[in-house]
UniProtKB/TrEMBL annotation:
Pfam families: Epimerase (PF01370)
Family matches, as Gene3D superfamilies: NAD(P)-binding Rossmann-like Domain (3.40.50.720), UDP-galactose 4-epimerase, domain 1 (3.90.25.10)
Organism of provenance: Halomonas sp. RT37
Domain NAD-dependent epimerase/dehydratase: 5-234
Cited PANTHER family: BIFUNCTIONAL POLYMYXIN RESISTANCE PROTEIN ARNA (PTHR43245), UDP-D-APIOSE_UDP-D-XYLOSE SYNTHASE 2 (PTHR43245:SF13)
Protein name, UniProt field: NAD-dependent epimerase/dehydratase family protein
Length: 319
């Protein structure tokens, strides 16, 4: 059955893939985006897609966007961990007050469900791996703390008003449309860009640090699935598999038929060594049994980039 779904931040990286997924499932989608980092070119021309330019911090904008909507995927955020450290007030305005506007509006408009972006950043330095949802939360940045506050607000709105919510703790999401030029670009976007331009990738530290890399199309599928489930609370969105940066460079060299050797630089302060998500809850609640392997995901990313270069953005979009 088709529904009308609001996607805040729908022109961004994860947002635009989620919009594609929801449209492919036959839903009507409304995007609310202020286009500060999201891009119109990330979105398709589609008869069931409506775009509202506005800001989640603005009550009138959120009211306008939520009118007639049944479910909401809330992804609009200030996504830079570094910026949250240098500008914590501005970051909290976006990430805490923006989310509060969305949750409160969802209650006023009688929405049946809100799925929102939390982050593995809520965990901070792990005590044990893999990180399960019950692990102690010790965020290392205002960004991580803001996401944790959002989880608490969502749970409180459930308790006070019966609003059904699910927060996904995204691990390291990668895939097409992640902009390597952005100051917040993830390591995969940066490494692919370096290798494609015959540059050495810069590794901060010894390259032995590991991450749980999740392909964005899997994230989009899980977002869509969660919107139509009843599960309440938080859930990791991870693959349960760890890859080191050196593994990553080796895989990319094979796929791109290059032989780049990394340039090693000082480790980032506050960098964590290992990150790996437990996936039992994700499997049980949302059935992501076989997430895309890193190799397959990298292949899809590289093929997408090649099409984009050859044909331009519209034809380059992923199905
Ligand atoms: C990621 C998320 C962040 C989230 C955090 C939670 C991204 C872009 N960031 O941060 O939003 O809060 O997980 O755990 O997904 N690196 C290099 N060379 C580079 C770039 C990065 O060696 O050119 C290293 C970093 O030092 C780090 C690893 O690669 O060790 C991953 O970095 P990055 O992609 O920025 O993600 P996280 O720091 O894990």
């Amino acid at each position: 059955m088709s529904a009308t779904i609001l996607v805040t931040g729908g022109a961004g990286f994860i947002g635009s893939h989620s919009v594609d997924q929801l449209l492919s499932e036959g839903h009507h989608v409304r995007v609310l985006d202020n286009f500060s980092s999201g891009k119109k070119r990330n979105l398709p021309e589609h008869p069931r897609l409506e775009i509202v330019t506005g800001d989640v911090r603005n009550r009138a904008d959120v009211d306008r966007a939520m009118d007639g909507v049944e479910r909401c995927l809330h992804l609009a955020a200030q996504v830079s961990v570094a910026r949250s450290v240098s500008h914590p007030d501005e970051s909290a305005q976006h990430n805490v007050m923006g989310t509060l506007q969305v949750l409160h509006a969802a209650c006023r408009h009688g929405l049946s469900r809100v799925v929102y972006a939390s982050s593995a950043a809520v965990y901070g330095t792990p005590e044990n791996l893999p990180l399960s949802e019950g692990a102690r939360l010790r965020p290392l940045s205002p960004y991580g703390l803001e996401k944790w506050i959002n989880e608490r607000y969502a749970s409180l709105q459930h308790q006070l008003h019966g609003l059904s919510t699910l927060g996904f703790r995204y691990f390291n999401v990668y895939g097409p449309r992640q902009d390597p030029q952005s100051p917040y670009a993830g390591v995969i976007a940066l490494f692919v860009d370096a290798l494609r331009h015959n540059r050495s990738p810069t590794v901060f530290g010894d390259g032995g640090q590991t991450r749980d890399f999740v392909f964005v199309a899997d994230v989009a599928r899980m977002n869509a699935r969660a919107l139509f489930s009843e599960h309440q609370g938080v859930c990791n969105l991870a693959t349960g598999k760890a890859s080191s940066l050196l593994d990553l460079i080796a895989a990319l060299n094979t796929l791109l038929e290059s032989q780049q050797v990394p340039r090693f630089d000082a480790p980032r302060s506050e960098d964590i060594r290992h990150s790996l998500g437990a996936t039992a809850r994700l499997h049980k609640w949302f059935g992501l049994k076989e997430p895309r392997s890193l190799e397959d995901g990298l292949k899809a990313l590289i093929e997408h980039d090649a099409r984009w270069t050859a044909q331009g953005p519209q034809e380059g979009q992923m199905a």
